[in-house]
Amino acid sequence: MSVGPHSVTYMREHSHTTTAVLDYETASHAESGLSLLEEEVLDLEANWWRYRASKATQIRELGLSPVRYYQLLCRLIDTPAAYLYNPMLVKRLLRLRDTNRARYPRYQVAA
Questions:
Q1: How far apart, in whole angstroms, are the C-alpha atoms of residue 39 and residue 81?
Q2: DSSP 45
Q3: CA-to-CA distance for 11 and 17, rounded, in angstroms?
Q4: Residue 67: half-sphere exposure toward Cβ, Cα within 13 Å
Q5: Which end of the chain is more exposed for a tag (fewer CB within 10 A), N or C?
Q6: 84 sits in which H/E element
Q7: How many alpha carbons lie under 13 Å from residue 40 in its C-beta half-sphere?
Q8: What global pTM score does this model have?
Q9: Per-residue confidence of the chain (111 residues) as pLDDT tens digits?
Q10: DSSP state of 56
């Protein structure tokens, strides 16, 4: 278990900073217009390669199956709130999706 500034152990040992950390997280969550799960999905997609565990393992730690994760992510990148939360990531994912749709047109789902 990590003992960094965002871990439960650190917050318990440094109770004078706990309120500030929790208030910041609540404010960030309220400002973005996204649920906590949606923020975690975007954060994971932006940073999955930095961690030792495989991406599938990290997805399962969120309590999602990989299929459900990608369904949520695809729906999420079309929302303005996701764009405001992480514009560079959303632009990259939209560009990748458009490239894949152009490359593999027979696999598109009819609207």
A1: 10
A2: H
A3: 7
A4: 0
A5: C
A6: helix 80-85
A7: 11
A8: 0.64
A9: 343 444 333 334 444 444 444 443 444 555 678 889 999 999 999 988 887 888 899 899 889 999 999 999 999 999 999 999 999 999 999 999 999 888 887 766 665
A10: H
